[in-house]
Amino acid sequence: MGCTDTLVESAIDLLYWRNVKQSGAVFSSVLLLLFSLTQFSVVSVGAYLALAALSATISFRIYKSVLQAVQKTDEGHPFKAYLEMEIALSQDQISKYADKILLYTNTCMKELRRLFLVQDLVDSLKFAVLMWLLTYVGALFNGLTLLILAVVSMFTLPVVYEKHQAQIDQYVGLIRTQVNSVVGKIQAKIPGAKRKEE
């Protein structure tokens, strides 16, 4: 739990721009990668990134070797600390993540079965409307464009919400009230659409 909590806190700090340099570096790197993928294939981008990383590490290694030869020092391999670092995943970590993936997969499959086999008419109609709207979204944007928009939104919307929370909550409450009113009217008119009391 401790490692997961730390990762969540780090992600939240990143998205809320608590450390501006770190958030800016991650945001610009991800955007650069996504924009690169709009122009080049995944294989090309991956190969170019690997070549850039190798060029940097090989150059640094040669620089340190020449520096050690000139200064007649024996500092050893410049990446020794990283080479000795343990990076293997433990069996516990693998089974923990596999269990989470299995739980999410099973939950999604049950929900999709419920929606497609019309266990609740209103939920299935909502899902149908969502899929219909997604056909228009798909006609306007490709997946990569949506991914770029999602990344930009992830790095901007939390900060905007944090600064204007009261106004946003007020408008979201009004919209939610209107939507619930319309859904209630539709449920009242469709036979068999009323939810069972839980």
From TrEMBL:
Superkingdom, taxonomy of origin: Eukaryota
Broad class of the protein's primary localization: endoplasmic reticulum
Signal peptide: none
Keywords: Endoplasmic reticulum, Membrane, Transmembrane, Transmembrane helix
Gene3D superfamilies linked: 1.20.5.2480
GO CC annotations on file: endoplasmic reticulum membrane; neuron projection; postsynaptic density
Keyword flag Repeat: no
Segments passing through the bilayer: 25-54, 140-161
Cellular location(s): Endoplasmic reticulum membrane
Source organism of this protein record: Astatotilapia calliptera
PANTHER family assigned to the protein according to its UniProt record, in alphabetical order: RETICULON (PTHR45799:SF6), RETICULON-LIKE PROTEIN (PTHR45799)
One Pfam assignment: Reticulon
Membrane topology term: Multi-pass membrane protein
Domain Reticulon residue range list: 11-198
One of the GO biological process terms: brain development
Entry protein name: Reticulon
